[in-house]
Description:
mainly alpha; globular; 10 helices; four-stranded mixed β-sheet; single chain
Amino acid sequence: MVVGNRAYGTKAFKRSRSHFADRITADGRDGWPVAAGRYRLVISRACPWASRAVISRRLLGLEDALSLAIADPIQDDRSWRFTLDPGGRDPVLGIRFLGEAYDARESGYPGGVSVPAIVDVPSKRLVTNDFQQITLDLATEWTRFHRDGAPDLYPEALRDEIDDVMRGVYEDLNNRVYRAGFATNQKEYEEAYTAVFDRLEWLSERLADRRYLVADTITEADIRLFTTLVRFDAVYHGHFKCNRRKLTEDPVLWAYTRDLYQTPGFGDTVDFDHIKRHYYLVHSGINPTGIVPLGPDLAGWLAPHGREQLGGRPFGDGTPPGPVRADEEVPLAGRP
Length: 336
């Protein structure tokens, strides 16, 4: 039986539902009240789902309220590990593997260990791995700890439109690149590939005359699109065979993604080194040689994008976040 990382590319891909869907809310209705310092957000900079939470946390200024643990991008068959930290243990939780927090919550849990995950620091138990809900709750339930000038990433008046856009982006792009990359037969691959590029064409048309996906400010929808687009040429184009064209070959989407990358809170959370090493080394079922490509050239990420001519107010009535905390800066190896 093929197990662990060798299973990638040998069985049909199906994204697991978030098994631990408790919510951390202002009123604590699930037993987990919002509280500064009580919880720890565990992420990998390689993972697009986790990167959503990192961007939201930074834009909203939650660094002091919700601490951050960064896992090694290279998993073993026990999944995410804290080998980037001294002694191979997370300095706050004291654990070597994120799976230990899962076990503390539910012994013998049969599912995978995923990020983002929020762990209760006092008990070292997992609270939630619901990647779809975590960022929405950061925007709406953690408002007491938002920084002055924090943007409204999920405005109530726009939620129906935001949800509709995000639904299509998730089904046809965020998730379908994985269905293409892990396909086990030609038909499965071609169906996913077609859906990916149909959605990219739709997005390119939508963004041709508007700076952001919904209204004139950055919202949750832009965050969810960005984390896939920023990985496209580095890993999805080649590694996942989504190679009709590169992001850099679509003038609208390339400029849109550069615009966000150069916006404080977006590019300063992206680690291209972690991204490439994770996909090419962990997915040994589809890259058995373990060779990590040297490209693409990252210099273009800092080139002018011209999108400001479309107007828009990136942070609405708010302000940009301040400088990245020194202990959370992306290493030079991961930047343009």
